[in-house]
Amino acid sequence: MIEILSSAALATVQDLGRTGSLRWGVGTSGAMDNLALAAGNLLLGNALGAAAVEIPVFPFKLLFDEDCAFALTGADCAARLDDQPLLPWWVHQARAGQVLTLGLPQGGAQRGSRAVLCVAGGIDVPEVLGSRSTQLRGAFGGHEGRALRRGDLLRAAGAGSACRTGFGLVPPVLALPLERDGIAAVRVLPAAEYMAFEPASREAFWAGEWKITPQSDRYGYRLDGEALRPIAPMELRSHGIVPGVIQVPHSGQPIIQMRDAQPSGGYPKFGTVIEADMWRLGQAPIGSRVRFIETTWDEALDALDEVRAWLDKVARMVELHRGAPAARN
Amino acid sequence: MQDVSRLTAWLKGTDIGLLELRTPQGTLRLERRGDEIVELPEEEEVGPVPVKAPSLGVFLHGHPLATVPLVRIGARVEAGQTVGLLKIGPLLLPVAAPQAGIVDGVHVADGAAVGYGTPLLELHPL
Amino acid sequence: MTAAPSISPLGTTALLFEAPGDMNLPSQQRIWALAHEAETWPEVREAVPGMNNLMLTFTRAPRQLDALRARLCEAWSAATAMPREGRVVELPVVYGGEGGPHMADVMAHTGLGIDAIVELHSAPLYPVYALGSHPGYCYLGGMDPRIATPRRKVPVLSIPGGAVSIGGAQTGVSASAGPSGWNTIGSTSMVFFDPAQDPPAMLQPGDMIRFRVEGIVR
After folding, report:
1. What's the gap in Å between the CA of B114 and the closest CA on chain A?
2. What is the pTM of this model?
3. What's the topology of domain A179-295?
4. CATH for B49-125, options being 2.40.50.100, 1.20.1250.20, 3.30.9.10, 2.130.10.10
5. Which of A161, A177, B16, C29 lies 20 to 30 angstroms, CA to CA, from A216?
6. What ipTM score was computed for the predicted complex, to two decimals?
7. CA A35 vs CA A147, A278, C175: distances in Å
């Protein structure tokens, strides 16, 4: 078992999300950095969408009470196994009794905000409506439908089994860079109400640097920047939305709907951050700035292909290495 | 031989743990063990130990996310310690010290392509 | 000649189809028929009705969006209002008091007394148009415009499951605790969602809700 030693950590069990239940008002949830979760699983030889622990608050500590291989991806947070410093984006072997400590996210411009802990075989919690992600509103899925607390015990489905460890990956923040004028950027596809905003507001959206305010979390990122003005006031009917949708309420300050957002809404939609770039947002720290890049349908699909190609390459290289005979030296 | 007993007697009166005397005739090593001074057998002079690339790839001095290299010249490393990284596509493999030693030199620049067996660093064995 | 429907992308994750014209039940019944048809298409993962609109999430976003748009418009033209044989579910509601903390605000806005508000709210049979917002939550049609009250300027951080509320011209019942910008006028104790059941939601589009007055706390 894995014992959580930190309290008030806001850490949750997530996988790649719960699909197919929007018809009942159940949103997708899932990892804010889905790329880190998938890559961590690949390093362990897990199924791509095996459940993991998403850690947004640091420092964070847990205890392995049995031997267990694990991978730490997402934000580099100067992790240690007992007193041994660990390389980030790496797969390691924990021995029974060892304590894993995550420190504060490191790194200046590449600093992330969420670490992902994958374990051999994935976190073993029951599947609910086809997913092991935590659905906070309604309290189901993940570990008892809530954030983890001190004393919680989690099971790694593959603990104790032999696993090749001691290697890692070049993180996607370096392998798939995207920035504008030195600021982290994400691509956005205009949405239904885009043209219903003032031209000056539309220009300001693409040209501006948007700050991620402290009122940002898994439900949504509230941005601070130039207020976006509609040409005329709009009253929309409630309609389905997805993570990435950028809503503009009366204040004019946009809110990016994130993984735990309501699956429906009624605010005007300026645009949608493309699926291929959501992991970048998932790593953007509170207080950081982000730029938006206007993109086309084709470019957005190309971006999705690029991410899939990176994952495929990782999968192939990792399997080659995991299958290779151990080095003699 | 007389020199050795004189040296031994003198050493006993100090708190020196190990005396190593290199002469053209060879190396004399006297080590304190408890109250006694013991002459250690003469060893073969061992040359620097190369750390070789475990495969083809790009040699990295440090993790791409880090600003500092994994080891510097003069650093003491343990057997198995990661002293560099080898990048193969998206994969990063550790370059491990084959034995304990002091980092004497780095032969390959950060980011240079290497082949299997290329000497990457050099260790002075301990 | 009605206006054309609006079709817009939600990133590369989904497509939003909005029916033109007034929002009403026959239009919603056509949306249900359209959802039923679209769910069979290979690029569609889920067809999710909203209030006279439909969101299609993709299994894999198609390169040729125009072909899908055209197919969607054709299917809409062909869609006939499919009245559903839904159940009528009665919810006992205690109006006002601790469970209805914003009843006074609705009274202030509408100029009506509590008895009038309760009568107007509990009289209709409310069709369930769609589920959304949170697990088990039903979007209802048919509220009397006389008790319409704008959404609150400052949303409440958490109202409990079972809260009966008015937001603008709509009414609804929360299925679980969560934030809300609506005006809560009463409470009911029905279980709307249980992930262990199949289907997990107690109500579905086509069902009807009637609010039965269990009590009024003045």
Report:
1. 17
2. 0.90
3. Cyclophilin (2.40.100)
4. 2.40.50.100
5. A177
6. 0.95
7. 21, 9, 32
